[in-house]
Amino acid sequence: MPFAQLGLKADLLRAIASQGYTCPTSIQSQAIPVVLAGRDVLAGAQTGTGKTAAFALPMLQLLSERPRRVADKPRAPRALVLTPTRELAAQVSESFVTYGAHHALRTAVIFGGVGIEPQKALLRRGIDVLVATPGRLLDHVGQRTVDLGAVEILVLDEADRMLDMGFIRDIRKVLALLPRERQNLLFSATYSDDIKRLADDLLDRPAVIEVARRNATAENVTQHVYRVDKDAKRDLLIHLIKEGQWYQALVFTRTKHGANRLTEQLLRAGIEAAAIHGNKSQAARTRALAGFKDGKVRVLVATDIAARGLDIDRLPHVVNYELPNVPEDYVHRIGRTGRAGESGIAISLVGRDEAGLLKDIQRLLKKDLPVLPVPANLVAHGTREEAAAPRPPRAQAAKDGNRHDQGRHPAGHRPAATETPASPRKRRPRRQARQVSGNVR
Predict the structure, then answer these.
(1) More reliable by pLDDT, 48 or 18
(2) What pLDDT, on a 0 to 100 scale, did the predictor assign at position 241?
(3) CA–CA separation, 141 vs 282, rounded Å?
(4) Is-contact 278 411, C-beta < 8 A?
(5) 367, 383, 400 - which closes a domain
(6) Which of 154, 176, 210 finishes a domain?
(7) Statement to judge: residues 263 and 135 lie in one domain
(8) Is residue 412 part of a domain?
(9) Is the pLDDT confidence value at 393 over 70?
(10) Residue 171 lies in domain
(11) Calpha distance 52→55 (Å, rounded)
(12) For 417-440, how does the pLDDT look when each residue is reduced to its tens digit (9 = 90+)?
């Protein structure tokens, strides 16, 4: 089915054609007519399926065809798109600008980590579409530099991620500032009880669109697991990159410190790498991402802050250097590859202390992930392959530790490591123990 059959007007079709697109994806063909009809939408789709265009295209048409509902607020935004991360906000804003090339509608994006004064200047000039992260949006509300009283369409993009990151209170504060009569669109890659409750509160008789099994990973992503000692993960990763001649790989770690350390190790091994996480300035994050996209950076090491919003054409490899504490984040991470019909490979390096996390992921996916043997030359050099281990205890703080700072939110706590108990040793005399310790040093 061509885009023309979805009810889109000629100016939008021209913008779509200029980007080289000819046929809509499944989420686009289902969502665009429903949004054009003015209905609320609850959409579940895997990342990389073209969902941004699924709401941006019909929103641009609706806003361009009808007059402002609130005539006495000529500079206030008519549409609001909330996203969990800066990168996703920038990507969504770019899509509105691209598809709206033949419209007079004005788009602005605001997020934390950059100066607020240029954003104030944009808002003062007046806008039609505002893309924002929740924390920075509420900063502007507090300083009275944005008025949300004229919003006609609200989009919660990656709603599940916003809830995971602790934005539910901010979302509810924003909702209280919006007009009661509006169209609501909620997009989520995974569903949870919290998402269901939010949808029940927010949406009015929505059209439910689901283009893939809930919490599923893309079928064109090949997934593998290596069971390997924690201390040997670095050597295995370097081996895979060099021997496989990988030209581009996105590698996920749990912590910002871990991302920095692994980046330094890769650089010492002669592999061009850069880190992207919440402690990096927005300018540094933008530079790292730009270098990765244009091929100057071979490996981008990221925390889960980058699991959403990174849109990289034909990204071939995603590596879970450490498994996420929340199994749904595995789906988001590997969703960076296998996008727009391309194939991709997702590899997880699983240590003994991560056996329980792997079980959680496999339970979510309803399938076991195939385990590959560690290359023989690495085993010979001491990279010991891990056998399955009993599931370690998991504190509730482990889930809380997966939240990341965006806007005003603090970074999550680092989950406590789970150690394998050491074998009991015979007690030595104190003097002998001191002597041994001294020799080691």
Answers:
(1) 18
(2) 95
(3) 22
(4) yes
(5) 400
(6) 210
(7) no
(8) no
(9) no
(10) 3-210
(11) 6
(12) 333 333 344 344 443 333 333 333
Distance CA 85, CA 47 (A): 15
Tokens of 69: 């509902």
Q: Is the dihedral of CA 108, 111, 114, 118 positive or negative?
A: positive
Structure tokens at 8: 């889109």
> Could you give the number of structural domains in the chain?
2
User: Do 235 and 162 belong together in one domain?
Assistant: no
Residues 165-185: tens digit of each pLDDT: 889 999 999 999 999 999 999
Is 155 within the bounds of a domain? yes
Residue found under tokens 């906000």: 89
Q: Are residues 19 and 156 in the same domain?
A: yes
Per-residue model confidence as pLDDT tens digits over 47-78: 667 889 999 999 999 999 999 988 889 999 99
**CATH code at position 138:** 3.40.50.300
Same-domain pairing of 235 and 196? no
Same domain, 191 and 245: no
Q: What average pLDDT does the structure give for the chain?
A: 83
Note whether 256 and 183 are same-domain residues.
Answer: no
> What's the chain look like in SS3?
CCHHHHCCCHHHHHHHHHCCCCCCCHHHHHHHHHHHCCCCEEEECCCCCCHHHHHHHHHHHHHHHCCCCCCCCCCCCCEEEECCCHHHHHHHHHHHHHHCCCCCCCEEEECCCCCCHHHHHHHHHCCCEEEECHHHHHHHHHCCCCCCCCCCEEEECCHHHHHHCCCHHHHHHHHHCCCCCCEEEEEECCCCHHHHHHHHHHCCCCEEEECCCCCCCCCCEEEEEEEECHHHHHHHHHHHHHHCCCCCEEEECCCHHHHHHHHHHHHHCCCCEEEECCCCCHHHHHHHHHHHHCCCCCEEEECHHHCCCCCCCCCCEEEECCCCCCHHHHHHHHCCCCCCCCCEEEEEEECHHHHHHHHHHHHHHCCCCCEECCCHHHHHCCCCECCCCCCCCCCHHHHHCCCCCCCCCCCCCCCCCCCCCCCCCCCCCHHHHHHHHHHHC
Which of 57-71, 136-150, 190-204 has the lowest average pLDDT? 190-204
Say yes or no: 159 and 240 in one domain: no
Looking at the structure, do residues 374 and 314 belong to the same domain, yes or no?
A: yes
Q: Amino acid identity of 396?
A: Q
User: Is residue 411, in this structure, part of any structural domain at all?
Assistant: no
Question: What whole-number distance in Å separates Cα of residue 56 and Cα of residue 95?
Answer: 7
Question: Tokens 């004229």 appear where?
Answer: 150
